[in-house]
């Protein structure tokens, strides 16, 4: 019999990284927050079959973002109807955020916006240190395809960055 | 040899230091074309890594819904080993039993500050100290009328089951709820945030049990005539 999952410890360890990953993936802090909550609540409902609960969390949250991306406006309507807090304010309002980091965020967003959802997911999951096998499971493909897509996405990102810099 | 350049997915494996096989590694080293492709890929990956890392500050801390945080906190308590859950209760029960012994109780009373006013009827405590636990708002208000003017609180994480309020001077107030958080403050009256699921709060002054308060119920003070 497997030991119970310590979801509290997993939350402490991973929620911030997961949130940042989802903000970059979705470009929307409110949606990212909802996806983090969704993934952890799902984990409480049913014990993941995955040996790596962190990879499971990222997979579930990524899928949620993908689903909601198709109906983002509907999702926001739903949140408003539930009385959830509105999306977070303008990043420029927060003094802890430096002008430089906001500028970098805009550059990153501009690159990510021009990649496909799958390419974005692969690049950002790689940033989080996941293996090609774990990324493949999250995006529903083979590890070999992840490698091919990763190489292509990096080249594309490099070209976009270079064209924007010139 | 031009036909046998490394495919992109093998370059990606080499990029991430994953096992691509010794032949691939050797080829990437010896073939100028593949070596350059891998080098370019590394540069692109490094630039992207740097850009991502540089955006960390631009992303604010997440602000989750209170109901979600409560759910996680409840799970945390459920997952605590049983013996840990019982430690605060067992400690409180032991102290309560100890206080039932007249000689111990008499000794404790002599160690406590005396009430300012003879009109006060609580024999054990120092003054009209009150604990109010509103049912609706998960908060606990502690007011120490006879304590020194400054009450300093240390920030404690919700996962910590013991919280301590240090009062300037000799006395110190220790609260042992079954998981809660307190805000940093300096005041005579102290607000503690307690989760809705909190079953009881045990309050100590110094090493002495002061009250056991049950949210939504009456506070009890071991040995007090009102109880």
| Largest interface: chains, residues each | A-B, 56 and 40 residues
Distance between the termini of chain A: 59 Å
Tell me the radius of gyration of chain B.
30 Å
Q: Would you identify the regions of chain A where 5 or more consecutive residues have pLDDT less than 50?
A: 73-92
State the assembly state of the protein chains. heterodimer
Q: What's the shape of chain B? A: elongated
**How can the largest sheet of chain B be summarized?**
5 strands, antiparallel
Number of helices of chain B: 6
- As a percent range, the share of strand residues of chain B is 15-25%
Fraction of residues in H or I helices of chain A: over 70%
Widest sheet, order of strands of chain B: 3-4-5-8-9
| Through-space gap between termini of chain B | 93 Å
Which value, in Å, is the CA radius of gyration of chain A?
A: 17 Å
Number of helices of chain A: 8
Q: Quick one: how many beta strands of chain A?
A: 0
How much helical structure, as a percent, in the residues of chain B?
25-40%
Order of helices and strands of chain B: HHHHHHEEEEEEEEE
pLDDT under 50 segments of chain B (min length 5)?
Answer: 115-129, 132-139, 145-164, 166-171, 178-188, 216-227
Characteristics:
heterodimer; A: 166 residues; mainly alpha; 74% helix; globular; B: 227 residues; alpha+beta; five-stranded antiparallel β-sheet; four-stranded antiparallel β-sheet; 6 helices; 17% strand; elongated; disordered C terminus
């Amino acid at each position: 019999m497997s030991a119970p999952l310590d979801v509290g410890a997993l939350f402490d360890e991973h929620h911030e990284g997961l949130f940042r990953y989802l903000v970059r993936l979705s470009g929307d802090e409110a949606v990212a927050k909802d996806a983090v909550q969704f993934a952890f609540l799902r984990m409480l409902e049913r014990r993941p079959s995955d040996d790596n609960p962190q990879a499971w969390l990222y997979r579930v949250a990524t899928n949620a973002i993908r689903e909601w991306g198709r109906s983002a406006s509907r999702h926001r309507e739903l949140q408003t109807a539930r009385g959830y807090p509105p999306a977070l304010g303008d990043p420029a309002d927060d003094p802890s955020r430096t002008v430089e980091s906001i500028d970098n965020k805009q550059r990153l967003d501009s690159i990510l916006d021009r990649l496909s959802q799958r390419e974005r997911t692969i690049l950002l999951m790689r940033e989080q240190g996941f293996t090609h096998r774990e990324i493949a499971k999250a995006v529903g493909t083979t590890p070999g395809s992840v490698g091919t897509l990763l190489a292509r996405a990096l080249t594309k990102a490099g070209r976009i960055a270079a064209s924007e810099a010139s | 040899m031009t036909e046998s350049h490394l495919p992109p997915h093998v370059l990606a494996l080499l990029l991430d230091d994953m096992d691509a096989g010794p032949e691939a590694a050797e080829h990437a080293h010896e073939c100028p074309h593949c070596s350059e492709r891998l080098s370019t890929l590394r540069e692109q990956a490094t630039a992207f890594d740097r850009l991502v890392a540089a955006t960390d500050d631009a992303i604010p801390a997440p602000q989750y819904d209170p109901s979600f945080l409560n759910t996680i906190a409840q799970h945390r308590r459920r997952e605590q080993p049983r013996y840990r859950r019982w430690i605060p209760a067992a400690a409180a029960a032991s102290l309560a039993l100890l206080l039932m012994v007249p000689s111990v109780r008499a000794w404790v009373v002599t160690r406590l500050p005396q009430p300012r006013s003879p009109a006060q009827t609580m024999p054990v405590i120092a003054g009209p100290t009150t604990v109010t636990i509103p049912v609706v708002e998960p908060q606990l208000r502690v007011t120490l009328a006879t304590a020194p003017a400054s009450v300093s609180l240390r920030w404690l994480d919700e996962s910590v089951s013991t919280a301590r309020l240090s009062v300037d001077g000799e006395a110190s107030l220790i609260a042992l709820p079954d998981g809660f958080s307190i805000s940093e403050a300096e005041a005579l009256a102290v607000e503690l945030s307690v989760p809705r699921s909190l079953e009881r709060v045990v309050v100590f002054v110094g090493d002495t049990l002061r009250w056991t308060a049950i949210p939504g119920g009456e506070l009890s003070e071991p040995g007090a005539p009102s109880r």
